[in-house]
Amino acid sequence: MICRVYMLKLDSSHIGKDLSFRISKMFLEAKWLYNHTLSQQDPYNYDYKQASTYIPVKVKDHFEQRTMTELSAQMRQDIVKRVRNGIRAYPKSPPAL
What is the pLDDT of residue 51? Predict the structure, then answer.
């Protein structure tokens, strides 16, 4: 496996306000899904398809149901996979001092 990093630079003068809004909403929904997946009892058995319509988001002291409109199924699947890989990579015990 080869590790690659791609950098993307967007020139805001060449994209419209609608596309700029959609991109920022994609990042916001990805954050909601990441946090929701991480908060589950068993993120390994979390079904990303259930998050296709509504997802609970904590706002101050209560939860609101937010609609997921911008993330495709493949994006949601990748976010859930990223959470699972992050949990696997986290050490089980603290390092010895």
Answer: 58
Measured from the Cβ of residue 21, the count of other Cβ atoms closer than 10 Å reads 12
Which residues are CB-neighbours of 56 under 8 A, at least 6 positions away? 36, 63, 64, 65, 66
| Angle, CA of 66, 36 and 80, to the nearest 5° | 115
Half-sphere exposure for 20 (CA within 13 Å, toward CB) = 9
- pLDDT computed for residue 1 by the predictor: 66
From the list 52, 59, 53, the residue with the least C-alpha distance to 80 is 52
List pLDDT tens digits, range 16-38: 889 889 988 999 999 988 888 88
Which of 59, 62, 3, 57 lies closest to 30 in space, CA to CA?
Answer: 57
| Residues forming a β-bridge with 57 | 64
